[in-house]
Structures are given as structure tokens and as C-alpha cells.
């Protein structure tokens, strides 16, 4: 995303720049709210996962209008959202107690953002999210603050993984 932002500035593509900055502001605002809520209450409210998905879809969709490869990015964005959501839904169905529907809905919005950048960024967001969640769980188990059966909030790890992928 940083290279695309710099390119928009260099080319004077102010519509794309405004759309991307708005999209990142939506992402940041929703990410903070979702992280705080998930850490406190172990839930990801529909209002915020929906705001993330709708805000990302609208702002990044507008960014597609101002881009030479706009339609390619648009379909990649939609495909990324659907693919990440489908993956998490399958994981939810396989491990009923391990992953909640909030994580599944969150993944749909995160997939829009990472997918907009391309399939490599989507894969990076997924892998980084799972690695972050695994490292946090491992650290908590090693410090005896959690056991193998402790339910941990997974939303912050998914958000962090996508945030890092967006900066690649």
C-alpha cells in the first residue's frame, strides 16, 4: 500500500489517494475498536465488522475507479473478501469451539483490503494473522497465563496480520 500511495502522489491521482487514505482510516478506526472489544469481551460486534467491510468496499471500490488496473483490483478485492471469509467459515465449522462467527465475518472485511492489493497480500495477511495468533497463544501457555483449552481472542491477531500485509 505505501508504494501505491506514493505512486498516487507522484502521478497527482488525488481521487485514488483520497480513497486509499479514507480506506486506511476506516481500517484503523475499526481495528482499534474491534481489538479493544475482542480483548475485553471476547466478541467482535457486527456493527464494527460490518463497518470495516462496508467502509473498505466503498473506499477501495472508489479507488478502483481512479486506477489503470481498476477492474482487476475490484475483482481481486471481492475475491479476496470471499476467499478469506470462506476459509474462516470452513475452520469455524471444523472447530466449533475454536473460532467464532465474529472471526469469520471479520475475515471477509480483511480479505477486501488485502485482496485489493493482490492475492500475494491476501496470503500474507492470512499467514501473518495465524502466526501472530499462534505466537501469542504460545507465549501465554509458556508463561502459564493460559492452557491449551483457554479461549483466546483471535480478532486482534487477524487484524495485525492484515495491517502488516498492507504495509508490504
Characterize this entry briefly.
With 168 residues, this protein is an all-alpha fold. 82% of the residues lie in helices and 0% in strands.
Which structural class is indicated by helix and strand composition? mainly alpha
How many beta-strand runs? 0
Mean model confidence by pLDDT: 95
Number of continuous helical runs:
7
- Order of SSEs: HHHHHHH
User: What is the count of distinct domains?
Assistant: 1
The biggest sheet, with number of strands, parallel, antiparallel or mixed sense and barrel status, is: none
Fraction of residues in helix:
over 70%
What spatial form do the alpha-carbon principal axes imply?
Answer: elongated
Radius of gyration: 16 Å
Distance between the termini: 7 Å
Low-confidence stretches: none
Strand content: under 5%
Protein described:
With 168 residues, the protein is mostly helical. The chain has one domain. Helix content is 82%, strand content 0%.
List the helices and strands and how they pair.
Elements: H1 2-11, H2 14-41, H3 46-65, H4 70-94, H5 101-117, H6 119-142, H7 155-167
Helix pairs in contact: 1-2, 2-3, 3-4, 3-5, 4-5, 5-6, 5-7, 6-7
Which features does this protein show?
168 residues; mainly alpha; 7 helices; 0% strand
Amino acid at each position: 500500500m505505501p508504494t501505491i500511495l506514493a505512486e498516487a502522489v507522484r502521478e497527482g491521482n488525488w481521487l485514488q489517494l483520497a480513497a486509499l487514505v479514507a480506506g486506511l482510516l476506516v481500517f484503523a478506526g475499526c481495528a482499534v475498536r474491534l481489538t479493544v472489544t475482542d480483548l475485553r469481551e471476547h466478541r467482535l460486534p457486527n456493527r464494527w465488522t460490518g463497518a470495516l467491510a462496508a467502509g473498505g468496499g466503498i473506499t477501495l471500490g472508489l479507488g478502483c475507479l481512479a486506477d489503470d488496473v481498476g477492474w482487476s483490483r475490484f475483482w481481486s478485492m471481492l475475491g479476496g473478501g470471499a476467499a478469506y471469509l470462506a476459509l474462516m467459515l470452513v475452520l469455524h465449522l471444523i472447530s466449533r469451539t475454536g473460532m467464532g462467527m465474529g472471526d469469520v465475518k471479520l475475515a471477509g472485511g480483511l480479505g477486501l483490503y488485502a485482496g485489493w492489493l493482490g492475492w500475494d497480500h491476501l496470503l500474507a495477511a492470512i499467514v501473518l494473522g495465524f502466526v501472530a495468533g499462534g505466537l501469542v497463544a504460545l507465549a501465554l501457555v509458556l508463561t502459564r497465563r493460559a492452557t491449551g483449552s483457554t479461549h483466546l481472542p483471535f480478532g486482534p491477531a487477524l487484524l495485525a496480520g492484515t495491517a502488516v500485509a498492507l504495509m508490504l
